[in-house]
UniProtKB/TrEMBL annotation:
Name of the featured protein: MPN domain-containing protein
Organism superkingdom: Bacteria
Residue span(s) of domain MPN: 1-131
Alphabetical list of InterPro entries matching this protein: JAB_dom_prok, MPN, VirAsm_ModProt
């Protein structure tokens, strides 16, 4: 979690971003590793785009270690830690954990986890916590319209 927070705070006022690696255990997404990405969006102050080369490399490495890329994270500078309309428009992979962190004046003040609904119509909030030093997303979900 510290690495995620450091990434989004360092990118402020832009959107820091990265990938979450782990596994699904009893329906919970257990995050075991994170990897910061360069934000490749044309306007990193208003959007994020994770380096696809990083994702491909991490997918290969994760498989070898029994893990998978199970999600992503990004900062929302001076706005809510909920998916934006742009997040929904750019989301295409249902089931990934989306950790969104609200960053104000360079400091992370809130983190929330989401998943894209199977039909792609909205994000579903997934409550989360830190267990044994690892961030965990866990159920039950509730649907929330993009804000």
């Amino acid at each position: 979690m510290r690495a995620v927070v450091d990434t989004v705070e360092a990118a402020y006022p832009g959107e820091g971003c990265g990938l979450l690696l782990g596994r699904i255990v009893d329906g919970a997404a257990v995050i075991e590793r994170t990897a910061a990405s360069v934000n490749l969006a044309p306007d990193p102050l208003r959007a994020f785009e994770i380096d696809p080369g990083l994702r491909l490399r991490l997918q290969r490495e994760a498989r070898a270690g029994g893990l998978a890329v199970i999600g992503l994270y990004h900062g929302h500078p001076d706005m809510a830690a909920s998916p934006s309309a742009a997040d929904l428009a750019g989301a295409w992979e249902a089931g990934l954990v989306w950790m969104i962190l609200r960053v104000e004046d360079g400091q992370m003040i809130e983190a929330r986890c989401w998943q894209l609904a199977a039909d792609g119509s909205c994000f579903v909030e997934r409550p989360w916590g830190v267990a044994r030093g690892r961030a965990v997303a866990y159920g039950p979900p509730r649907a929330v319209e993009p804000g």
